[in-house]
Structures are given as C-alpha cells and as structure tokens.
Amino acid sequence: MQKQLVLTLLVVLQVFLGGIEGARILDRCTLAREMDALGVPRSDLARWAFIADSVSSFRTEVISPANPDGIKNYGLFQISNKYWCQSLPGIRSKNICEVDCDQLLLDNIKESVHCVLRIKELEGWSPWISALHHFESSGQTSIDDCFEFESVTVTVNGTTSAGSSGNNPKIFIPSDIGCSVNKNVEF
Fold first, then answer.
1. What is the pLDDT of residues 150-171, one digit of tens each?
2. Could you read off the pLDDT of 115-143 as tens digits, one per residue?
3. Which of 91, 154, 157, 171 is found 20 to 30 A from 11 (Cα to Cα)?
4. Around Cβ 134, how many Cβ atoms within 10 Å?
5. Ramachandran bin of 98, using left for φ above 0, alpha for ψ from -120 to 50, beta for the remaining angles
6. What predicted TM-score, i.e. pTM, was given to this entire model?
7. pLDDT digits (tens, 9 = 90+) for 31-72
C-alpha cells in the first residue's frame, strides 16, 4: 500500500513538474513478451517481471527521489544514474550503458532492456537483490502463462502425434516419407 502511494505521488509530481509524455504502464505478460522479442532469455523473464513490479509497478516513467548525492533511479527497472545512465550535467556518471537516463523513461522499452542486460552481464542480479528478496516465495517464478501455446498435430504415414509450437518442439521428418501437418509451423 505504501509503495503504491509513493509511486502515485511520484507520478503526480512528474506531471505537474513537466512530466514525461505518454507514460506507459505495462503488465507482466506484456513486459515478458516485449523482452522476449528483444532477445532476453525466457528463463530470466519471470525475474525481470518481478523486479519491474517491485521497483516501478510496471511504470516506464518512474524516477526515484534523489539521494543526498543527487543520485536517482530511472524507469521500469530503476536504473541508477551513478553508474549506468547519464542524467543532468552536474551528476557524474560512469554511463556504462551509454544512454541518456531520459531514454529509460520512454514507452519503447528497448533502451531499458539493453541496459539491464548489460548490467546483468557485469553485475548479475545483485543491483536488484532487495527487489528479488521474495521472488522465490512469490508464486511468480514462471512466466509461461504469458505465451500462447498452439496445438500442433502432425501425421506421418498415418501415425498422429500432438505437440505444442509454444514449446518449440523438434520434429524430424525424413524426406522420403509422406506427411501432412494441419497447421503451418516452422520446423
């Protein structure tokens, strides 16, 4: 409840103080599908969705209050301007992601995803350890429900078997036998 109140106040302040145009609120499945399309391993998607929910309530425009050193966290994954992105000219940043912090607030999450993948490559999950503290006990450790599973039936020489294209089945069909597939799928 308190987290929601703080995030609501941040959004209201941003709107009144020249906030972000077109701020976007995602849901876990939309985030998972977009991250999947950007090449994020499916095995990591549930963690990323949990982090985004924990730190920004799936909001792209969230900026944390500045700490005494002027350091803030930006966007869906609350990426720090101390190390990862460049914000105001007076704040020194290592800018490891080579991105302007404002790019992490956009509706298009491509830059945010590229940056979190870079962070994870260098630091693992440690920058989000407090957000992940309850991940295993959350009941949200799978994201499979966010991906549609299409039923596929394959008939080879009169023998029928069913599979799921959502699981990317490997079906090997020798070229010298006749077969039919009742749905167009990639083999």
1. 445 556 666 655 554 444 444 4
2. 999 999 999 999 999 999 989 888 889 99
3. 91
4. 11
5. left
6. 0.69
7. 999 999 999 999 999 999 999 999 999 999 999 999 998 899
Tokens of 147: 């991906």
> How many other β-carbons are positioned within 10 Å of the β-carbon of residue 182?
11
Please give the full DSSP string across the chain, using - where no structure is assigned: -HHHHHHHHHHHHHHHTT--TT--B--HHHHHHHHHHTT--HHHHHHHHHHHHHHHTTBSS-BPPP-TT---EETTTTEETTTT-B-STTS----TT--BGGGGGSSS-HHHHHHHHHHHHHHTTGGGTTTTTTSTTTT----GGGS---EEEEEETTEEEEEEGGG-------TTS-EEESS----
Alpha carbon of residue 104 to chain centroid? 12
Quote the CA–CA distance of 73 and 90 in Å, as a whole number.
16
Q: Which two tokens stand for residue 88?
A: 């105001």
